[in-house]
Structures are given as structure tokens and as C-alpha cells.
Amino acid sequence: DLPHPLAGSVPQVASPIRLSQTPVEYRNAPPTLGQHTEQILENVLGLDAAAIGKLREQGVI
Hints:
Elements lengths: L1 E3 L3 E3 L26 H7 L5 H9 L4
Antiparallel strand pairs: 1-2
């Protein structure tokens, strides 16, 4: 289980990879819906703040 900002404690699926000298670290709970939307639109699609604002006004995001 990992702590989540909105859902409390969230159960996770463990990694099947087992390394004796470097165990898997679980650091972050899954993102909330839309948590990274603006980052993706900016960094991957290259949209500026005005274009993102227009999408938000139109109810697209």
C-alpha cells in the first residue's frame, strides 16, 4: 500500500523483479485523474499557456 493524497492508502501490485542487491523502491502513489495534463500538453505537444487555457474554457480538459 502507498499513501495517496486523495484516496488514503492505495493498494499496489508488487513488481515481479527481485534483485538481491537493489530491491525495488515504491515511492509514489498513482497520479490523480488529470494530474499531469498540463505537463503533457506543454512538454509533449508543445502547447503554450494560451492554448491550454482555451482548451480548458471549451471544456476539453
